[in-house]
Each structure stands twice: as C-alpha cells, then as structure tokens.
Write a structure and sequence with these properties.
Blueprint: H1 2-11, E1 16-19, H2 23-42, H3 52-56, E2 59-62, H4 65-68, E3 74-77, H5 83-96, E4 102-105, H6 112-116, E5 125-127, E6 129-130, E7 140-141
Parallel strand pairs: 1-2, 3-4, 4-5
Antiparallel strand pairs: 6-7
Length: 142
C-alpha cells in the first residue's frame, strides 16, 4: 500500500522518500511507482506537459529511516500491522524528524493512541487509512 500512497503524493506534486528495510524492497516499490505513473501518463492523468520523468524525479529512496525523516513535514507509515513495529517506526520518526513532523499511521485496526503513547510527542501522531488501490480510490479515513 505504501507504493500507492507514494505514487499519489508524487502525482500531487510532493517530494517523497520511500523507506524500507532492504534496498531490493525500496527498488521494487520505486519500479512499481514508475509503472503506475506510466499508466497515468497514458491516460492523461499526470497533467498537461508533465512526464513520468518530471514526477519520479521528486522520489528518493532510502533504507535509513532516521536519516530519511530529518527534513520531513509528514511521514505516512505503511508497515505491517504489528503494534511493536508501528511504535518503533513512530518513535524513530519523532526522535529524528523536525519538531513539527507529523507521524500518520496507515492503519484501520490499531489504536492510534497506543501507537503514539510512548513516542514522546503523541500530539503529532495521527491515523490515516487509505483504500486500495490507492491511485484509484479517492477517499481516506483520518
């Protein structure tokens, strides 16, 4: 789901950093986004004069979450539905991001209060639930 979220953010004009635990996973997501952007371009959904190259140029890749979030305004997490992992990612984001960074967990089943209670800034933790396939579904739950 993170791949679709990143694609939609890129298409909306935002800079995106894909983060995963292994290079091969990040590269797979990047290629998936590129393929999705090509489909959107073919359908004329990137905007007049906008190319896949223009959009994908705003996408960085990383396996170092702490470094990747240092200048982030918002981090949308789409990790496996395990509370311990979500809490760990949340704490890393809050500890290493700017003092204004918002951590948004893409979950529909887990307590946002529980995810954010030990991170040091629960007021900057929110839930945001995207629906699959993200590039086609125009609704979210916040």
């Amino acid at each position: 789901m993170g791949e679709g979220i990143a694609q939609v953010a890129l298409m909306a004009g935002y800079n995106v950093t894909l983060v995963d635990i292994k290079d091969e996973l990040v590269n797979k997501a990047y290629k998936g986004i590129e393929a999705g952007l090509k489909k959107s371009e073919e359908k004329g959904k990137l905007g007049e004069g906008v190319t896949v190259a223009d959009v994908i140029a705003r996408c960085k890749k990383s396996t170092d979450l702490a470094s990747a979030v240092k200048d982030a305004d918002i981090v949308i997490e789409a990790v496996v539905e395990r509370m311990d992992i979500k809490k760990q990612v949340c704490k890393t984001v809050i500890d290493n991001g700017p003092s204004h960074v918002i951590f948004a967990s893409n979950t529909s089943t887990m307590s946002i209060t529980e995810i954010g209670k030990d991170c040091g800034a629960p007021d900057r933790v929110s839930g945001i639930h995207f629906f699959n396939p993200v590039p086609l579904m125009r609704c979210i739950e916040v």
